[in-house]
Amino acid sequence: MMRNLLVALILAGGLAVAADDAAVEKAEKAWAKAVVAGDATAVEALLSPDLIYAHSTGVIESKAEYAGKIRNKEYNYKGIDHQSITVKMFGNAAVAHSRVRMHGVNKTGPFDNNLIMLHLWVKQGGKWLL
Q1: Taking the C-alpha atoms of 59, 61, 103 and 73 in order, what is their torsion angle to the nearest 10 degrees?
Q2: CA–CA distance, 32 with 25 (Å, rounded to integer)
Q3: Residue 86, CB half-sphere, CA atoms under 13 Å: how many?
Q4: Which pLDDT band holds residue 108 (cuts at 50, 70, 90)?
Q5: DSSP 8-state secondary structure symbol assigned to residue 7
C-alpha cells in the first residue's frame, strides 16, 4: 500500500511539472503573439509588476517602460517565431530558454534577427508572469 502511494505521488508530481512546463510554454507564446499584435493590454497582463526586461541590445526597462513602448508602437514586431523552447522549473519559477527569429521595424530601421532568448517566469496569483 505504501509503495503504491509513493508511486502515485511520484507520478502526480511528474504530471504537475509537465503541466507547468506546458503552461509556461503557452505563456511564452502568448507573450510573443501579444507583442507582434502590438497589444499592450495583453502584454501587461503577462508581466510581473517587478519586471526587469533586458533586451539583447542591452536596453533595460521596467514593466511601464516596456508596455509603453509596445503601446506607442516604438516596438513594431512583424514576427517572433520560436524555433525551440526549453522550460526548466524551479518551484514557482521557470526559466524559458528559446531560439527565436524576431523581425520587424524599430527606430533604426528594419531588423531580422536570430536570437537566443532567456525569460524568467514566476507563478503569482495562479498565473505565470514574466
Answers
A1: -120
A2: 11
A3: 6
A4: confident
A5: H
DSSP per-residue string spanning 43-86: HHHTS-TT--EE-TTS-EE-HHHHHHHHHTTSSEEEEEEEEEEE
Distance from chain centroid for Cα 130: 6
Residue type, 45: A
d(CA 23, CA 33): 15
Amino acid at 127: K
Encode pLDDT of 73-93 as tens digits.
Answer: 888 999 999 999 999 999 999
Q: Bridge-partner residues for 108, per DSSP? A: none
- Output the furthest CA–CA distance in the chain (Å, rounded): 66
Residue 3 has pLDDT above 70, yes or no: no
Virtual CA dihedral for 28, 114, 86, 69, nearest 10 degrees? -20
pTM (two decimals): 0.83
Cα radius of gyration (the chain): 17
Residue carrying C-alpha cell 501579444: 34
Rounded to whole angstroms, the Cα distance separating 87 from 85 reads: 6
- Separation CA 71–CA 76 (nearest Å): 10
